[in-house]
């Protein structure tokens, strides 16, 4: 609930200031950007679907041989420089949802305050910087693949979190190092009509840049609850110690997950 309140506040601030900015040229600067991909995927697998992610109901294969839903996405973004130190971002994305429609959803909605030129804090909904290209994983033409590798990026299928993060950058001997820490929560609707809840989301990432080379490392953890699974695992608990052991190992009720990722990029054009 707190995350939704923060998102609503950020959107209200951006909308109000945007309207004022249209009426008065001397007020803050705004930029509007967009991205989009239309793709059609084919699969001759008749026992399962190749889908866009874990939280969508179908894709190409079992449901239909050809599907435009897997890769098609449209995004619009407003960036508002409200003051020399305060920036707001609102990004809305339309793509296949858990309920089989393309209703636009808020992907990002946050306010960033620059404490110093190299130290900033953000609050609202923002990207989970778990992997090297997490920040633009939905901008398909900005990555070297048609889509980010699912065997890696689907390990953390939720792309954002509601909370606060801190970003610190420093330079030394030709290197630029950026350290980022995020704390937040996230609730996601899933195809069966229920909800997955991630609490105490912590993501710590470090990006080291030197000329055309970039080295990325990240550690993340969160507590995941999927309440609809509880009755299933409660049935196992009726079978004594062994059933309890199975339920404790696989039940998703406040279960803690941890992940570490590393990335290396070399781009001579930089």
Walk me through the structure.
There is one protein chain. By secondary structure, the protein is α+β, with helices and mostly antiparallel strands. The protein has one domain. The chain is built from four helices and 14 strands. It has a ten-stranded antiparallel beta sheet, with helices on one face. A two-stranded antiparallel sheet has the order 2-5. Mean pLDDT is 85; it is low at 20-25.
Features:
two-stranded antiparallel ribbon; 14 strands; ten-stranded antiparallel β-sheet; 270 residues
Q: Over all CA atoms, what is the radius of gyration? A: 21 Å
The chain-level mean pLDDT equals 85
What share of the residues lie within helices? 10-25%
| Biggest sheet: strand arrangement | 1-6-7-8-9-10-11-12-13-14
* Element-level helix/strand string: HEEEEEEEEEHEEEEHHE
The gross shape turns out to be globular
What's the story with the biggest beta sheet?
Answer: 10 strands, antiparallel
Strand content: over 45%
Low-confidence stretches: 20-25
How many strand elements?
14
**Structural class label:** alpha+beta
Q: What's the total helix number?
A: 4
């Amino acid at each position: 609930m707190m995350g939704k309140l923060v998102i609503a506040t950020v959107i209200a601030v951006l909308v109000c200031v945007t309207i004022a900015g249209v009426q008065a040229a001397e007020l803050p600067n705004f930029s509007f950007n967009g991205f989009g991909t239309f793709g059609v995927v084919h699969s001759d697998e008749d026992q399962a679907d190749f889908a866009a992610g874990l939280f969508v109901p179908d894709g190409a294969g079992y449901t239909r041989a050809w599907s435009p839903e897997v890769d098609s996405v449209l995004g619009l973004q407003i960036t508002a420089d409200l003051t020399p130190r305060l920036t707001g971002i609102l990004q809305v994305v339309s793509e296949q949802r858990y309920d089989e429609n393309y209703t636009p959803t808020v992907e990002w909605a946050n306010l960033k305050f620059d404490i110093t030129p190299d130290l900033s804090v953000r609050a609202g909904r923002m990207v989970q910087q778990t992997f090297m290209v997490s920040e633009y994983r939905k901008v398909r033409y900005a990555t070297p693949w048609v889509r980010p590798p699912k065997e890696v990026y689907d390990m953390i299928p939720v792309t954002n979190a509601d909370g606060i993060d801190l970003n610190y950058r420093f330079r030394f001997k030709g290197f630029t190092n950026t350290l980022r820490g995020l704390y937040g929560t996230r609730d996601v609707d899933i195809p069966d009509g229920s909800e997955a809840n991630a609490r105490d989301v912590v993501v710590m990432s470090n990006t080291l840049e030197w000329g055309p080379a970039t080295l990325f490392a990240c550690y993340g953890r969160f507590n995941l609850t999927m309440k609809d699974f509880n009755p299933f695992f409660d049935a196992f608990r009726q079978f004594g110690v062994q059933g309890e052991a199975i339920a404790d190992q696989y039940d998703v009720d406040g279960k803690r997950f941890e992940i570490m990722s590393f990335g290396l990029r070399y781009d001579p054009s930089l």
